[in-house]
Amino acid sequence: MDTVVALVTDLRSPVLYALIVAVVFSETAILLGMFLPGETAAIVAGVLAGQHQLSLQLVVPLLVLAAWAGDSTGYLLGRRFGPALLEGRLLRRRRVQIDRAGATLRRRGWLVVVVSRFLPFLRTVTPGAAGVSLMPYPTFLAASFAGCLLWGVGCPVLGYFAADQYHRVEEVMGNTGIVVVALILVVAWAVRLRRRRAAHRATTDEEPTPHADDVYDPGSVGPVSPAGSVGIVRPRRRTDPRRP
């Protein structure tokens, strides 16, 4: 990151804004994150804001919108060209794993999209994968905006306050991503366990309880007949006199 900061320090502010927005947008739109993570650009933007070369009040909304637009573009490209890529030789052998990933996105897509924004590699490929798995577009946009908002505020603010210690920020962000994932997994497990217990409790409550009249009493022989005999059925009288 030292090299990146040294290269952009002498650039004018409009060029810096445009460059940062382009890198963050391209990270998920055209998979540029494989080579230059947008996280680096966001942190550098915060560092430059701390050095009074950029405005933090302008950097934050630009980062959020650029990241959100990049995610949306990556989703649409994945939805449009993803099925054709899946049929290619390169990905055909991985079809089972890809189908499982798509199923995970359909079940827990909102959570996956938000968390992936804090993990470099997943941040790059998740929008396209969501498009390939046909995740509902409104759901994706909402989850993407939530993740981009947290990320677009957190990264530059860390860079802003870190100032000369910006080389430590990337390490902190990497560890933070791991901690965030761990916390979310714990919360998801707790919620799932709670739902299972609630479902089991509801099933138990719905089981019919035996009525007092239906309880078998060993001391009783049978129902009481109108004549007062217990458990005895009287034979009918024969009405035909010709029969003995």
TrEMBL record:
It is found in: Cell membrane. It comes from Cryptosporangium phraense. Residues 200-244 are annotated as: Disordered. Its main location: membrane. The chain crosses the membrane at residues 15-36, 140-161, 173-191. Residues 36-159 form the VTT domain. Residues 202-214 have a biased composition (Basic and acidic residues). Belongs to the DedA family. GO terms for cellular component: plasma membrane. This is DedA family protein. It is a multi-pass membrane protein. Residues 234-244 have a biased composition (Basic residues).
